[in-house]
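Lab meeting, item 3. Inverse folding demo.
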C-alpha cells in the first residue's frame, strides 16, 4: 500500500527537479557546457574496458566467466564490467543518476554499451535482463530504479526483454556503501524473494543488471536465490566495479 509520506516525497522531488531545470539549465557533467548532460565531445571521454576479466581474480580472459580455479568462489557465471570506476566521468554519471535523480542521463548509456560490446555481445541471444530491485520505499523516494534505466538502455541497443518482476526486495536494508565487506554480506542476507515467473524462463540466461559491483554481496544474494529457484545461467552486468 502506498504510504502518504512516500507519495509526498515523490511529488516533492519531481517539483524540485522541475524548478532546478528551470533555474539551473542542464550542463555537461564533464566540461560544463550548457545544453546537454553529456556533450558530444565528452561522450567519448568514457573509456570502456577493452578486455573481459575473471570476476574473482580479475585476470584478463576471452570472456567474463570465472576461471576454473575461481569457479567455486562465486555464484555468478559471469560479470560484464563496462568501464573502470577510476574513470571520473563514469563515477559522475552513476552518482548523478542515483543521487541527483538525473534520469535523462541514462539515454547516453546506449553508446557506452555499443562501444563496450561492439560485435562481441557474448550473452545468449535470448538472455533476459533483470534489474536488481530496490525496496518499494526507496523506489518511491527516488521515483525510479537506476538498474531499470540501465536495462532500458540495453533493451534499446540489443532488444533483450526486461523481466523486472522475477525478484523483489522485501527488506529495506541499509545502503551497502556505508558498510565494510563482512557487514555487507550480512546486510543483504534474505532481503530478496523470487516471485512467480513465466514458464520457459528457467532455461534462459538471466543477466542481472546494476550500476556498481563492489564486494558482489548484493549480486551474489540475487544470483543465489535465483539458482535455488531453478535458474541455471546467471550472469551480471554493471557500469563499473567499485573499490
Ligand atoms: Zn562536455
Ligand atoms: Zn580467476
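The presenter then showed the designed sequence:
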Amino acid at each position: 500500500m502506498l504510504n502518504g509520506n512516500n507519495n509526498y516525497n515523490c511529488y516533492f522531488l519531481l517539483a524540485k527537479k522541475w524548478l532546478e531545470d528551470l533555474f539551473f539549465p542542464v550542463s555537461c557533467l564533464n566540461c560544463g557546457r550548457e545544453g546537454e548532460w553529456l556533450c558530444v565531445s565528452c561522450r567519448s571521454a568514457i573509456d570502456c574496458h577493452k578486455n573481459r576479466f575473471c570476476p574473482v581474480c580479475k585476470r584478463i580472459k576471452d570472456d567474463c566467466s570465472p576461471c576454473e580455479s575461481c569457479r567455486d568462489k562465486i555464484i555468478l557465471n559471469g560479470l560484464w564490467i563496462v568501464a573502470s570506476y577510476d574513470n571520473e566521468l563514469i563515477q559522475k554519471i552513476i552518482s548523478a543518476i542515483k543521487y541527483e535523480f538525473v534520469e535523462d542521463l541514462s539515454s547516453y548509456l546506449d553508446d557506452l554499451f555499443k562501444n563496450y560490446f561492439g560485435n562481441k555481445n557474448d550473452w545468449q541471444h535470448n538472455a533476459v535482463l533483470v534489474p536488481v530491485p530496490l525496496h518499494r520505499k526507496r523506489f518511491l523516494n527516488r521515483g525510479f530504479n537506476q538498474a531499470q534505466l540501465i536495462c532500458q538502455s540495453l533493451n534499446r541497443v540489443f532488444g533483450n526483454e526486461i523481466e523486472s518482476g522475477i525478484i523483489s526486495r522485501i527488506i529495506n536494508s541499509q545502503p551497502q556503501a556505508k558498510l565494510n565487506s563482512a557487514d555487507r554480506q550480512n546486510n543483504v542476507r534474505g532481503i530478496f524473494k523470487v516471485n512467480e515467473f513465466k514458464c520457459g524462463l528457467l532455461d534462459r540466461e538471466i543477466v542481472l543488471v546494476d550500476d556498481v559491483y563492489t564486494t558482489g554481496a548484493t549480486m551474489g544474494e540475487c544470483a543465489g536465490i535465483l539458482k535455488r529457484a531453478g535458474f541455471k545461467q546467471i550472469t551480471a552486468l554493471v557500469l563499473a566495479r567499485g573499490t
